[in-house]
Design a protein that fits this description.
The protein has 211 residues and is α/β, with parallel strands linked by helices. The protein has four helices and eleven strands; from the N terminus they run βαβαααβββββββββ. Strands 3-2-1-6-5-4 form a six-stranded mixed sheet, with helices on one face. It has a three-stranded antiparallel sheet with strand order 7-10-11. Strands 8-9 form a two-stranded antiparallel ribbon. The protein starts with a strand and ends in an 8-residue tail after the last strand.
Length: 211
């Protein structure tokens, strides 16, 4: 068996916690390795959760003119002929910018990024099974920052396949409460038909409904 590569800190998962923990240790002169199995760094926060959903929300507010109406007497009306591409373009740009920022931060702090599936051999040794090679690393400290999965309350009917369907709209004709999902597992009753783009959700409501 090959000897394990030595590090002061081994981080499993390159989401916000993993990135910040690795950078902080490297800042103080520690030798750090980060292991990520996904194709893109950033975890669900950057790729499917917080950043995409909040970016889509801000895009919806911008295109609707909600924030611009009544500002210094400017007449700002709803942009017409919007497409899914209009919403997704800015979201993709923001996500990619955040991914590049993380990679730049790792490079700046001389943190080694390892691609593959991590498995603990013991309290200080990790096996990293990559697409082409398997490596063994040893860390004085191992930080596990692999994130979590959304909680789905049994009483709420959510017709979403997080690992399958990526785009679609529910016409709102089903039985049971409509559910909107914000971030990673925060549920609330939706105000209208539920539509999603990727893993981020947009709740639409008819104009003038509810006063």
């Amino acid at each position: 068996m090959a000897a394990a590569e030595q590090f002061d800190l081994v981080v499993i998962g390159c989401g916000p916690a993993g990135e910040k923990g690795a950078a902080q240790a490297a800042y103080f002169g520690k030798k750090v390795a980060v292991i990520e199995r996904a194709a893109a760094v950033g975890g669900s926060c950057i790729n499917t959760g917080t950043v995409p959903s909040k970016t889509l929300r801000e895009s919806a507010l911008y295109f609707s003119g909600l924030k611009q109406r009544g500002l210094y007497g400017i007449d700002y009306s709803l942009k017409e002929n919007l497409t899914v591409h209009d919403f997704m373009h800015h979201e993709r740009e923001v996500v990619e910018m955040e991914r590049q920022r993380i990679l730049k931060n790792l490079e700046l702090h001389k943190i080694e990024l390892m691609r593959g599936q991590a498995a603990l051999e013991d309290a200080h040794t990790v096996t990293v099974r990559g697409p082409h090679v398997t490596r063994r690393v040893r860390g004085e400290v191992i930080l596990i920052s692999t994130g979590s999965k959304p909680h789905r309350p049994a009483e709420m009917r959510v017709r979403v396949d997080f690992h399958g369907a990526r785009r679609g709209c529910d016409p709102g004709g089903r039985s049971g409460p409509a559910v909107a999902i914000s971030g990673r597992g925060n549920f609330r009753a939706a105000a209208g038909p539920l539509c999603w783009i990727g893993d981020a959700f947009v709740v639409q409501r008819a104009a003038g409904e509810g006063g």
